[in-house]
Each structure stands twice: as C-alpha cells, then as structure tokens.
Give the backbone structure.
Amino acid sequence: MAETFDVTIIGTGPGGYVCAIRAAQLGMKVAVVEKRESHGGTCLNVGCIPSKALLHASERFAEAQHTFARMGIIAQPSFDLSRMMAFKQEAIDGNTKGIDFLFKKNNVSVFRGAARIAGPGKVAVGGQMIETKHIVIATGSDVARLKGIDIDEERIVSSTGALALDKVPERLAVIGAGVIGLELGSVFARLGAKVTVIEYLDRILPGMDGEAAKTFQRLLQRQGFAFKLSSKVTAASTDKTGVALTVEPAAGGAAETISADVVLVAIGRVPFTEGLGLDEVGVARDGKGRVVVDDHFATNVAGIHAIGDVIRGPMLAHKAEDEGIALAEILAGQAGHVNYEVIPSVVYTAPEIAAVGRSEEELKAAGMAYRVGKFSFLANGRAKANQTTDGFVKILADERTDRVLGCHVVGPMAGELIHEVAILMEFGGSAEDLARTCHAHPTLSEAVKEAALAVAGRAIHA
Ligand SMILES: Cc1cc2nc3c(=O)[nH]c(=O)nc-3n(C[C@H](O)[C@H](O)[C@H](O)COP(=O)(O)OP(=O)(O)OC[C@H]3O[C@@H](n4cnc5c(N)ncnc54)[C@H](O)[C@@H]3O)c2cc1C
C-alpha cells in the first residue's frame, strides 16, 4: 500500500523547500521530489549563491587592487580562478547540505528523480507513484534563449556556464543589461575582462527606477563597462578564436560586428514545466508559459497549486520563499498572504543598487502625486570615512499622506539598507516616521534617515 502524503512538492528550490519546511512545521506529512543531485534549485546551485560568492571574492580582489593603497595597506594582489571557483563551490555545498539537514529535522520525505503529475493526487517518480492530497508545482525557471544564438556553455554561455568558466575571457560580450548580466559582467570585469553589454532597450535594468539606473550605468562605465543600448544581436558565429556577434540598431539600420572571446546570454528566464504532464491533467498556462494561479496559488485543477518562478511575478528567490510559506499556511487552513507591493530587489554589484515599492516612472504612469527625498552618500559621514561615496538614497512618499511608496538606493550596502524601508512600508509608515527614528552615528543608514527628512525639505547635511 503506497504511503499517502498531505502535500507533495515538485522542486526543492527556494519556493519548494521553504514550502515543505513550513508545511511540516504546521503538522502536515510532506514529500518533496527533486531531479537535481542537490536541493536548493537554481538559487543555491547555479544562481544567487554561486554568483554572490564570485561577486564577493572578485570585489575583495578589486578592493585590494584599487583601494587598499589609499588606506595604507600595501599588497600586490593576484588571483587564481580555480581557487575562486572552489570557494564558490564551498558556498554551494554549505548551503545545499543545510537543506538536507532541515528536511531531516522536519521529517520531510525526499524522492529523487523527475516528477510527472499523473492526475490529481498522484505524482509519478521513476517507477514509484506518490499518493497525496495536495500537489505543489515549484519547478522554477530556465535560461531564456535567443533565436539564432546557440548556447554551447563554452564560447556562448548562459549564467550557468559563466559561473563555471575556467579562464577569464579577455573580451566578454553580455547580451542583456538585466541583473544577471550586470552581476556576472562585474565579476569578470574585476578580474580583467573588457566587458561590453548589448541591450535592446535604451536603458539598463528595465523595471528599476530610471534615475537610479542612469547613475548606476555611469558608475559601471567608470569601472570599464561599455554599453551598446537600443541594439539587438541578430546572429553569432563561433570559431576557435572567439565569437563574432552581428549587432543592429533595435529600430533597424546598418549592422556591425562585435567580437568577443566569450558571450554571455542573459536576456532573462522562462518558466520551466517540461515533462510535468500539465497538458494531460489540464493545468492552464498563460501566453508566457507560466502556470496560472489564483490569489491562493491554486491552479484551475483542484488540489494542484504552484509557486515561485513558474508563476507570475518577479523571478526572485525571496518572492518564491514567501509564496511557499503563504501556500503552506493556506493549505493548513490559515490566512497565508504575500504583499507584492513590498518585494525588495537588489543588484549585488559595487556599489549595490536596491529598490522596494514603486519607481518614479510607475508613480507617474499611475497618476499618483508624490514627493521625492534624496540624499547623496557624499554627505554621509560613514561613507566619507570609508571613501565609498558613490550613489544616493531616494525616498518617494505620497504627496498628501506622506506614506512611503518606494525607495531606491544606489550605494554601499544598498541591499541591506533597503530593508528598513521595506519594514516601514509593511507597516504603512510615513517619511516622517522614518525621519523621526533615531539612527546610530556614524552609519550608512543615516543616509536613509536624511532622505526621509529630505521628503519634507529638511535634510540636515544637504
Ligand atoms: C545567475 C543567477 C543569479 C540569481 N541571483 C539571484 C539573487 O541574487 N537574488 C534572488 O532573489 N534571485 C536570484 N536569482 C533568481 C532565483 O534563483 C530564482 O528566482 C529562484 O531560484 C526561484 O526559485 P523556485 O523555487 O521558484 O525555482 P528554482 O530555484 O528554479 O527550483 C526549481 C527546482 O525544481 C526542480 N525541478 C524542475 N522540474 C522538476 C521535475 N519535473 N521533477 C523534479 N524536480 C524538478 C529543478 O531541478 C529545480 O531544482 C538568480 C538566478 C540566476 C540564474
């Protein structure tokens, strides 16, 4: 007689594994199915964690090269890419093993292999059939491909191949000026690659606040990045010496050739549902291939739910995690909920760029009246002491109520600073609330307080 579970989760990325742990905490009998060798999905194996390990290591190298001498530290840094990659692998292993431990601790049953939904309440894995009350699709996403450009993971790589290069390319062409392209471009630029980013749109980081993105582009150019905006790659030819990319103006016109040793295709990600048998069970998907869910993460088929990159919304690990928690609570009869208005996003470059809530462009498009409070790190004591003064904090508040609607930070530790505004927004707080909260001195956080003061035109150090 087959074992029966309360919930079976397909995929153990940040969405799936967090959903499993929360469901187990709530007393459910939980199974997970994973086709990869290690848990943690894209994020831990080929995404957030390895990219951050390489960003960390390469940033320390760049600091040692460019800023140590100014601080009186004499060093002659060099690097060994294979050891840097081993450091990255240790980060992956440490994190993925942590999930094995958490699954054991919470009595989550693990099935290895590719799952197929055989019908409501039935999940097939290899020769086994799992009987379950609920099914959660948490199968994540895959690299988006560009027509006519074949990813061979050697000369033309996806983020996965870029994270495993055995040599720093002299010339790296990055197709796509989104988060992944700029982060991995930064890693290799710091290690000596000449990086050219080709982007279809007329700006970098689509979706981020325009002013923050422009400032950030200037800072990246200062670090040696070259940008070809409003341009499309139409063909690539590879030989032993490298890749020749045919690049045309997005609006049409004469083509030019950009030569590179390695090309990184970073034009985004697409939902992954291959082999799940969704057509057979009738689970609806939208035009972009995403599993369609209602506000409670339920698909159109009773007992089948979905979370994370495979459904609508930003493709971010913490969004997937929060959906996993909310869904587990809903399945347990509680009121699980995700506030999509307050999902921070961070680009982990140097400086970092972080955002939460609405951008100026979004507020304008929505016809909302707002006030801007902006404060430069040039006037922040701690940033001055550290000589990391590039960037600013910008707070956007409702003109009538002063409620904070968004925050955009370009600068040191932006990815940490953004959370004080995220929490404020969760509580429906105002710029005044933030401005009247005592902040320790000297901290970078004081720039956030000053930006809040600046909303009412009363920043002290500006
Ligand atoms: C280079 C890179 C850097 C990134 N950096 C960040 C970052 O800094 N911060 C951030 O928030 N996000 C980042 N992301 C995005 C983040 O990785 C994803 O948003 C996140 O992993 C989505 O989680 P998920 O659980 O929905 O899916 P995934 O993490 O994609 O996990 C899905 C899992 O399902 C498994 N699976 C699929 N089909 C089946 C099947 N039929 N049977 C069994 N198992 C199956 C897969 O093997 C996989 O392990 C990055 C992504 C990349 C590529």
